[in-house]
Amino acid sequence: MLECLILGDSIGVGTHMVMPECMNLSRGGWNTWQWNRDYLSNDLTAGTVIISLGSNDHKGVKTRAELEKMRAKVNSQRVFWLLPAGNLPAGGVPISDIQNIVRSIAQANGDTVLPLTRLQPDGIHPSGAGYKEIAQQVRGS
């Protein structure tokens, strides 16, 4: 069994840069539907799973249904959700809606939610220090 697996978008890619020991199934710019389309058939079993999805979701993505579908396939003793801090307004979905969905799914599964702090000026991506903080929180728990 894998020790660590990262599922996600560009924030997942950045997390992998500070946690190279984890297998990475992340791609920049991807929304939850795109992730499921290309990765949902993979084995999502690992000791620790880190999920970073939702920041790129837009009106056309059924975020709750897609995240629930993905979470149902995850087999892990420890699951961490990186709570999206921001998104592009052009997507037409308030970030608070995405955050509420993530929190709800995490709570229903007994998972841990890690808010993103120390953001870059875009208000979406963590800075280098922010990514290191994610790694410390995951490794320290």
Integer-rounded radius of gyration: 14 Å
With strands numbered from the N-terminus, the spatial order across the biggest sheet is 2-1-3-4-5
The total count of strands amounts to 5
Instruction: Give me the strand/helix succession.
Output: EHEHEHEHEH
Q: What percent strand?
A: 15-25%
Helix/strand structural class: alpha/beta
Q: Could you report the average pLDDT, rounded to the nearest whole number?
A: 97
The termini sit apart by: 19 Å
* Overall shape: globular
The number of distinct helices, counting runs of at least 4 residues, comes to 5
Task: Describe this structure as you would to a colleague.
The protein is an alpha/beta fold and 141 residues long. It is 40% helix and 20% strand. It is built from five helices and five strands, in the order βαβαβαβαβα. Helix 1 crosses helix 5 (128-140) and helix 3 runs parallel beside helix 4 (95-109). The chain starts with a strand and ends with a helix.
